[in-house]
């Protein structure tokens, strides 16, 4: 996977305790998200080895996100911001994915990795304040913003002159979720931070601060795809 920190010079303070990208137990990371960031967390599926091959615990042969999706439809009721409750949940299944419900303490603007890297470079030049940013093994980038972004994202894109359906820009808000580092997607790899949660990005940006460079980058990507 493309490493944003290496390709465009993104710098990330390492003063925060959450999360180390490798080596930590999932239970410890989940607890820190709740305790230090005050994010709601809930456990998802996990990976099981059968005949030397990893499969999702849901047992679906065509699972689109092996080891990285909710166990059942009642997942919103499981989400907790209590470190004690999080420790209890992962004590029952230490391999469970760490999933974060959106629409509570944050929303997420999701774009392709290529568009996200282009947008991030523009944001840095413009000194746009940024929150945490995650990268998934599916080559997607997740920009964390203030809650309430999802309902207004389409209108913000429309004001910039793009039909929302023409851009690969997916807002995730109430009723949705995202996987958190270091959750693994089957054989594809782990979710990682491009911008880690730190004390300097505790205050999240509003969607309006990010939507223009994100929409521009998605528009460039869409135009390049049409020209192929």
The poorly predicted ranges are 1-22
User: Got a strand count?
Assistant: 10
Distance between the termini: 23 Å
Tally the helices: 7
Multimeric organization? single chain
Mean pLDDT: 89
What shape does the CA trace take?
globular
Order of helices and strands: HHEEEHHEEHEEHEEEH
* Computed structural class: alpha+beta
Structure description:
The protein is of the alpha+beta class and 228 residues long. It contains 7 helices and 10 strands. A 5-stranded antiparallel sheet has the order 8-5-7-6-10. A 3-stranded antiparallel sheet has the order 1-4-9. A two-stranded antiparallel sheet has the order 2-3. Helix 2 (26-37) packs antiparallel against helix 4 (83-92), helix 5 crosses helix 7 (207-227) and helix 6 crosses helix 7. It is globular and about 50 Å long. The model is unreliable at 1-22 (pLDDT under 50).
Tags for this model:
single chain, 228 residues, alpha+beta, five-stranded antiparallel β-sheet, three-stranded antiparallel β-sheet, 7 helices, 10 strands, globular, disordered N terminus
Give a short summary of the structure.
By secondary structure, this protein is an alpha+beta fold. Helix content is 33%, strand content 18%. It contains seven helices and ten strands.
Give the SSE layout.
Blueprint: H1 4-7, H2 26-37, E1 42-43, E2 47-50, E3 53-56, H3 75-78, H4 83-92, E4 98-101, E5 107-112, H5 113-125, E6 133-136, E7 140-145, H6 149-159, E8 169-172, E9 177-179, E10 192-195, H7 207-227
Helix pairs in contact: 2-4, 5-7, 6-7
